[in-house]
């Protein structure tokens, strides 16, 4: 990120990032705020808007975000002023027109789970949530997205010492990166710099890591060194080197089915 291992990562995802566990469903107490999601059925480009002061404005902004990727048939799937919305698409990169899942929910996690189920019902084998805004999300930043499901295929190796939520200081705030024991990650900016939330797969063992983003064209690999005490990690990848510090003590306490976790 910026001037670090993920430095230019933001350049790849800006305009398209992780968050502390206690804030995975932030819905700020603001009256009369709206959220909306839109999609292009033909190319599955998506867009969202949150924190809007009117339904019409929020829907228009979601359409504009969807069309910013070049789609010309974007349509609003849903709008809410009290809950959350989510869209799920395939994680394989092989998009098929009209195959996606959309749902609403009282919380971000509920909307995401419902969207994943709808995506599977549409005939998509491997789905992930590409956007999950809530009406009360802070309009200055990008809404977080939940961790993807465990990837299909052979077991993934994840270093137990990296499982958790990490942060790094950037201009205007922090970036948050969650690495999960099931071999997935999410990234989110809390610097209000419009760096987009994104998610994908993550593997790590013996000081080597690989990262593959589902929703943006980004793959990375490099080395990592866990610092004494386990609360800081030095990552060095394609884009440079940076030290991330642990947020809280969110450490895996046991194995996850289908996943190898080792040093």
Class by alpha and beta content: mainly beta
What's the assembly state of these chains?
A: single chain
Strand content: 35-45%
Question: How would you write the strand order of the largest sheet?
Answer: 8-9-10-11-12-13-14-15
Largest sheet geometry: 8 strands, antiparallel, barrel
Helical residue percent band: 10-25%
Let me know the average pLDDT: 83
Task: Specify the CATH class of the largest domain.
Answer: Mainly Beta
Question: What string, H for helix and E for strand, traces the elements in order?
Answer: HEEHEEEHEEEEEEEEEEE
Low-pLDDT residue intervals, each spanning 5 or more residues = 1-30, 249-263
Can you tell me the CATH architecture of the largest domain? Beta Barrel
Question: What name does the CATH topology of the largest domain carry?
Answer: Lipocalin
- Give the overall shape, derived from the CA principal axes: globular
Tell me the number of helical segments per DSSP (H or I, 4 or more residues long). 3
Number of strands: 16
What distance separates the N and C termini?
A: 25 Å
Computed Rg: 18 Å
Q: How many distinct folded domains?
A: 2
Compose a concise summary of this entry.
It is built from three helices and 16 strands. By secondary structure, it is mainly beta. The chain has an eight-stranded antiparallel barrel with strand order 8-9-10-11-12-13-14-15.
Structure description:
The protein has 263 residues and is mainly beta. It has two domains: 9-20 and 147-261, Lipocalin, CATH 2.40.128.370; 25-131, no CATH class. It has three helices and 16 strands. It has helices spanning 9-13, 55-67, 108-121; strands at 34-39, 46-52, 75-80, 84-90, 101-105, 127-131, 156-158, 164-170, 173-179, 184-189, 198-205, 208-213, 219-226, 232-237, 240-246, 259-261. The strands form four sheets. The chain has an eight-stranded antiparallel barrel with strand order 8-9-10-11-12-13-14-15. Strands 2-1-3 form a three-stranded antiparallel sheet, with helices on one face. A three-stranded antiparallel sheet has the order 5-4-6, with helices on one face. The protein is globular, with a radius of gyration of 18 Å. The model is unreliable at 1-30 and 249-263 (pLDDT under 50).
